[in-house]
Amino acid sequence: MNERKLKILAAVVEEYVRTGEPVGSKVIANLPGIGVSAATVRNDMAMLEQLGFLEQPHTSAGRVPTISGYRLYIEKIMTPPALPDSERERLDNMLAEQGPMTGELLIQNATTALAELTQCAAVVSDFSPKFSVISKVEVIPAGKRVYVVLLITSGGAIKNKACRLEFDLTNEQLSMFSDYLAEHLEGVSVAELSDERMADLAAAMGAYMMTMAPLVQGILELSRDLQQHALTFSGEKNLFSCEDLDKMEIVRFIEHKEELVRLLDDSFSGIRVMFGEDGGSFVIGNSSMIVSKFHKGGKNVGSLGVIGPMRLDYAKVIPYLEYFSQKITDLISEEGEEPPADTQGEENRKG
Amino acid sequence: MNERKLKILAAVVEEYVRTGEPVGSKVIANLPGIGVSAATVRNDMAMLEQLGFLEQPHTSAGRVPTISGYRLYIEKIMTPPALPDSERERLDNMLAEQGPMTGELLIQNATTALAELTQCAAVVSDFSPKFSVISKVEVIPAGKRVYVVLLITSGGAIKNKACRLEFDLTNEQLSMFSDYLAEHLEGVSVAELSDERMADLAAAMGAYMMTMAPLVQGILELSRDLQQHALTFSGEKNLFSCEDLDKMEIVRFIEHKEELVRLLDDSFSGIRVMFGEDGGSFVIGNSSMIVSKFHKGGKNVGSLGVIGPMRLDYAKVIPYLEYFSQKITDLISEEGEEPPADTQGEENRKG
DNA sequence: TGTTAGCACTCCAACTCCCTGAGTGCTAAG
DNA sequence: CTTAGCACTCAGGGAGTTGGAGTGCTAACA
Predict the structure, then answer these.
(1) Which domains does chain A have, with CATH numbers?
(2) B149 touches strand D (CB under 7 A)
(3) Is residue B349 very low, low, confident or very high in pLDDT (cuts 50, 70, 90)?
(4) What pTM value is reported for the model?
(5) Nearest 5°: phi and psi at A235?
(6) B:289-348 Cβ neighbours of strand D under 7 Å
(7) How far A161 CA lies from chain B's nearest CA (Å)?
(8) In which element (H, E) is residue A349 found?
(9) CA pair distance A193, A225, nearest whole angstrom
(10) How would residue B223 be classed by pLDDT, with cut points 50, 70 and 90?
């Protein structure tokens, strides 16, 4: 497996990605940087085919990369260029659209930006809420017998829900209940906020329980909401405009988000590239999915992925993905680290 | 235009909807309830073609309804069966999934249910928030220099947003600001909450303004959110699995939601059926969109629509749409009407 | 006057056949 | 090890052919 063979494999991949047509020996031979005749290229290609990196749709057609071929190209051959500063700045702007980057908006922006940049579908699975802690619970009256429960987590997620009670609460009851909730829930991890815990809470409250049940229920629902993996999907339309992909398979794939979540949550480090049909549950033919992770406090708290045709400019897409996952890691870590290091906040307080 | 011709037109529409193939005279003649020979049917079909209700893809093919043909069928000929009680119950259950029906969840459920039932795309444009009034504004501290603004409307919409201030507020400042907001914003229509009004508010606040600016900004953003038509879309995938429709056109259509909003907001009463290509901006070829309205307090506060192939079982879909729009009207009116009629709430108050 | 059977006609869709050209593998010479 | 030359393969496209479904028209019939 000499240098030239690798160069030829790379050329086949790149030409095929560019044109979508099987690539012949002549085209490769004429490419700058090859410098051997078509016959020589043919010999090498035949070898590459034997090794399983190339294949022919039919005898008299050019060569097309196999999945192994793509994999070899991605892992060993290609050298993605570093992003120039101007590009980084552009990406930062895309992330920062609509003001400061809070958790959800950041994820949303990252997803749409990735979809836009790559002209593929982009997906982010964010399970950071699961790792965060309830920082505030409020109950706010909002009309006759209607109360809004507000849940804020250390991760910056804010959820609310309206609950209808059987009776109105007196101010006294309300503040008592609020205090009680604050005491028992603030500081508790969202993941711990199970049915049992809430049942305990309810039991402890005793007599009031009958009245407060819908509120307790509401809190539970909000926490379930938080625990759920937030899956943000964008750019489906790009998949549908892609010639190489079967529309029906796309539909089927998008419908079964659980599968997708499973694939995204699988733990690994660095970048992983998966191919449709490549065994397992990622089933869009001729497609590929590139997944990267982001972290908070050293813990893996989410994945972001790009789904597109197998015929994808990996050298372009992978740097984007790497940059975004690093950026998200940086930004959410900032957020989380602020409170402990916050002393100047006291000095600056203004009366 | 005799009875029999209408019957034949109906038969052509229904057969074509069923099979997707042009319908020949023989097929029609053999249908129960026709009772004339194929030759007679042919004569009538020729007549219907002259009148513009049918057309032939080519000379030796059967007939296919034209847009006028569909329209005549829908408006004058077909008689959708009333929904049986069992069906109504089923629909009610679909609407009520996941607990009681609050505004957003109700709309969400209605959209997915419609998409599911019709195997088409369903869309709801809800502009009721525009007509509602701010019933509560709260500012809640949520960490160092972070405050959550909570906006509740009479329509039951609840929105929140985290804002970061330059400094922390004292309790005094916070309650002063809250009171101020309550006094000046509660009872104000969401539609009136313009930039100018907020500027006035800011001006009136004078010195505090520098500190509070992000909060005021946050409120403004929330109200903009509310004023925006909430467009809920579901079942796109059904469109993509539909043979008759061009995938690219679907993508283009889904991308340009403003067009869709324009079509949905157009005011009319009852049910309206639009056809793709039928002049104007609804541009998916061979598609149709059926739109119905829902109301609150006599005002039209939203539309719900079904988008599918022109080859659609209108007699089945339209009753669903009518039922849902009526149901939504009923449910949101209930919500809104309760407060004034609320006297027993006082008696039942429990200390 | 309206309905029906019969018949000639039309034309799409599917099929075969053929040809072209791109690309290959192999061989023999450099 | 590389290259030129050559015979071979095969998908894709165009032309010609056929079958069948469906029509319009006409003439007979109720």
Answers:
(1) 3-77 (1.10.10.10), 85-127+229-335 (3.30.450.40), 133-227 (3.30.390.60)
(2) no
(3) very low
(4) 0.81
(5) 80, 25
(6) none
(7) 8
(8) none
(9) 11
(10) confident
